[in-house]
Amino acid sequence: MALIVQKFGGTSVGDAERIGAVADHVARTREAGNEVVVVVSAMGKFTDDLIRLADDVSPTRPPRELDMLLTAGERISMALVSMALGARGVESASFTGSQAGIITDTDHTRAKILEMRPDRIREALDDGLVPVVAGFQGVSTEKDITTLGRGGSDVTAVALAAALHADVCEIYTDVTGVFSADPRVVAKARRLAKVSFDEMMEMAATGGRVLMLRSVEFARRHAVPLHVRSSFTWEPGTWIVEEDPTMEEAVVTAITDDKSEAKVTVGGVPDKPGVAAKLFRELADQGINVDMIVQNTGANGLTDISFTVAKTDLAAAGDACNHVKDVIGALEVTTDDNIGRVSIIGAGMKSNPGVTALMFETLSANGINIEMISTSSIRISCVLRAEKVGDAVRALHTAFGLDAA
Ligand code: ADP
Ligand code: ASP
Ligand code: MG
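^ thats the input. predicted complex w/ magnesium ion below
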């Protein structure tokens, strides 16, 4: 008998019919002799709707109250899925994140899990029930309700799978697995049978939103096998696994795109030690995550520093830079939210020269200007104008031989 954690995303539980299909699948998995723990997201785009409502009543969206509001979405789906299971003769009970023992820090809207105490889930399983757990939420060490960041139901599922020593964590979604590019951007994208944890982390970090980055990190750390698959066709999907050292690695496995970031440039900065330190200390103290950073070659003792941040942090980042502008002696701060990023990812690029050249040649042949570049040992990212992103991804997908036949 295997223990399987099955997580269903928003589209998978989008309406009563979808909830019925999910309950049928859980019932089938039980009939096959497995124990099942279900994790659910809010129905459809309900989380976005709740955020809009919050915006309508409050310019500041107090984080504690926002978390209380957003967790309502997952409460609705967990109760409905549990009822649908009952209607099929499968005994079940729903649990909030707090009841499931998910203990987090106090960082509202992006809380981190500190501890898992899934005693009630274990007891429910021992009593022969299917526990249905609300994804994306926990309870803080101060006993407040928290959320784990957008897409956080993936983290809930992996954390439960790790704590319960599940045999597999299945992530059911609206595509049939992890593809060589977002299938909504590249019609010729191919489904990958296997992706290494290293590659999946780079994909998740650069726009491949099919899995939340933190869930992949968590799964690797706790050796949880992940299987991404469709809740529409139920066919086998993509396994996220440790790299197999006996296999030859693909040079480029996937191309990702991301329009969720914006660029900040601090211009006319004195080119001397300590300036970057002061600037990035201020950003860190404001809790702003900085992604790509580029410092231009200095001229006349002055230089420019550009970096990217999440669009949602752009206003705060601009304020922080303006705050230190005079302290560091910078001339101006400009922001640009019309950028996008394309990245090529592949574990084999470490040992293959020419990958960077082909990426730049492909972009240039399509008349696309590169504004910033960053690399890791298995990834190259370029920042471009946002409107060029789709063309760039499609051209790179073809150039690196990834198009489906
Ligand atoms: P869920 O609500 O099930 O969590 P998400 O919207 O978070 O679903 O993630 C699934 C979506 O991820 C797909 O609809 C797809 O458009 C997008 N996506 C982006 N990159 C990829 C990729 N490389 N492979 C598969 N899906 C991807
Ligand atoms: N409902 C939450 C969101 O939309 C969490 C999730 O779907 O994973 O971000
Ligand atoms: Mg998701």
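The chain has a mean pLDDT of 95.
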